[in-house]
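Replying to the earlier thread about multi-chain prediction with a worked example.

Input:
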Amino acid sequence: MKILLTNDDGINSEGIYSLYGQAKKLGDVTIVAPDAEQSAVGHAITLSQPLRVKEIMRNRHFYGYAVNGTPADCVKLGVRAILKSKPDIIVSGINLGPNLGTDVIYSGTVSAATEGTILGIPSFAISLVTYKNPDYEYAASFARRLIRLIARQGLPQDTLLNVNVPAVPKDKIKGVKITHQSKSRFIEVFDKRKDPRERTYYWLTGEMSRMEGDGEADDVAVKENYISITPIHFDMTDYGYLGELKKWLTLL
Amino acid sequence: MKILLTNDDGINSEGIYSLYGQAKKLGDVTIVAPDAEQSAVGHAITLSQPLRVKEIMRNRHFYGYAVNGTPADCVKLGVRAILKSKPDIIVSGINLGPNLGTDVIYSGTVSAATEGTILGIPSFAISLVTYKNPDYEYAASFARRLIRLIARQGLPQDTLLNVNVPAVPKDKIKGVKITHQSKSRFIEVFDKRKDPRERTYYWLTGEMSRMEGDGEADDVAVKENYISITPIHFDMTDYGYLGELKKWLTLL
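Result:
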């Protein structure tokens, strides 16, 4: 099995290294990842500057390819220019921090898996729900099981999986839930400051606002110590509103 | 009516200037737009550097606020830090070039309108389907009519509109079609080159691959000289696949 790994925390992050260790047990693994952290880049691609690829060593062996671009760039370049043949599966992660609720649209981790799906390759994103003292071991072994299952079961042509693993000891994890994206979102506050030259600047800050969600919402599942798997697609048409909107045609 | 305008081509683009001219006929208009072109940034937000705001003059009058960030940053900063009160509507555009099919996920123009919707403000994105010799006049007057209609009709809480206007003379436009996002997509090719120091670099290039679409697909409508309006939402859950995926639970 040929496995392509990427992420948005950058090639030097420990999350992708843990994933690499587990994925290697299943087949031939190639890493193509950003040379620096690319969090919150959403589905950005790089059009205005050329992309460069650098071969990275780790523990005295070739480890992977670092790209001066976004996660979506890495997947495009990996599949179209670096790999000799199409990978069987693409895994993006393990991300340091959750990718849940409305925030999924900002996620570089998820966008890499989306890009893989667009390219016709079964893909998933995997995130560990913590920002500090991450222990990726359990999430990485779960990723390995999921890779094996997807290799056997396949995925629909336009669907990827968004996986979030609670950061609790293995024996506290209650199981897996198939979930939908919740409406929870980040409520931003801008921290207004003056620089040493008395010019104003702003830092984006804020906090998550948890919306009331049913037990099938991704963030609720994770809070209850379930691994959350959400099937995601990239046709964003609001089909439920098409009929209503057609009534506007006489008004325009 | 308070109208917030933004785009991804940057504050100095002619597309937003045309929109400004028409929007001013309806109310109080504020421009908060990127200080430079931000095409294909998707739904990126800026977390790793501070945002700065610059007041821009045009024709000797105050014109708008330029931000060193992405379209989504501009909307967040505009609503949360620059405007004294929430705008009634947000319009993103007029983009130079289409935002159709799968490529919508890369669109900074659409992401700005998505951000507006997340903030609870009715929003739409508008694009002119050409890359050269744009004449924004008709698209801008259509935007004005749409602003007025949305002010009257409202939009569902989680839905924005993605509008694409064919770049043909006004009398060639056949009308408006309510559409869905097509599966058409960009097929990328990397142009591999050597720099003067003999180091390899890649330019992302390629061409659109049009998929067979019905007459209700966004790209088909535009090709047939209709203005395309697609309702978009940002819950990307593939609800149709949830049931099937639940069968995996016994296998994991």
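The radius of gyration of chain A is 19 Å.

Feel free to reuse this layout for your own posts.
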